[in-house]
Amino acid sequence: MDLHEMNILEMIQKHDYLSQREMSEKAELSLGMVNQLLKRFLKMGFLKAEQVDGRKIRYLLTVAGRQYLSRLTIDRASRSYHEVLKLKSGMAALIDRYFDEGDTIPILATRDEVMDMLIELLEEQGRRYDIIEQPRPGVRYVGWTYDEDVLSGKRRGMMINMLDI
Questions:
Q1: What is the pLDDT of residue 158?
Q2: Residues 9, 15, 21, 23, CA torsion sign
Q3: How much is the pLDDT for 1?
């Protein structure tokens, strides 16, 4: 829930004139969920609501809302950092398990942030690597796959593994 809360509060911080429907569309949440979050934020004192004209409501972050958003942001950054460390540790263990010290490590993947992290790790270790775009039979590669949400096409997670082709 923290991610949804953070998204809604960030939207309000940047665009205080968004309707609940616009927030719902941008956050990819149901209108009911956005309404529930806004009511909770108002009750907790994180937001202030002003009637602008007719049915239009302007939401403003209070000092408490800014503090809460800051805490959510710091917590998210900390969790992300620890996940990156865990991923790097997993990469190192996989490489140590399957490759000898002097081996050139073939990487089968397209350039993305995971490849950048792997290359950084290999360079820190003084290991040689080769980025392969087309698989060759009989070669073991370091590669990864993403778990994607079929409906939205968004990444939900990833798994790094050895690929024997």
A1: 56
A2: negative
A3: 53
What pTM was computed for the model? 0.66
105 CB-near residues (< 8 Å, 6+ apart): 95, 99, 122, 127, 128, 129, 130, 142
Question: Are 80 and 3 spatial neighbours (Cβ–Cβ below 8 Å)?
Answer: no
Give the pLDDT confidence of 11-54 residue by residue, as tens digits: 999 987 888 999 999 999 999 999 999 999 999 999 999 988 87
Q: Is the predicted pLDDT of residue 71 greater than 90, yes or no? A: yes
From edge to edge, which strands make up the β-sheet containing 155-164? Answer: 128-132, 104-108, 140-148, 155-164
| Three-state secondary structure of the chain | CHHHHHHHHHHHHHCCCCCHHHHHHHHCCCHHHHHHHHHHHHHHCCEEEEEEECCEEEEEECHHHHHHHHHHHHHHHHHHHHHHHHHHHHHHHHHHHHCCCCCEEEEECCCCHHHHHHHHHHHHCCCEEEEECCCCCCCEEEEEEEEECCCCCCEEEEEEEEEEC
- pLDDT number for residue 163: 59
Q: Which two tokens stand for residue 63?
A: 């000092």
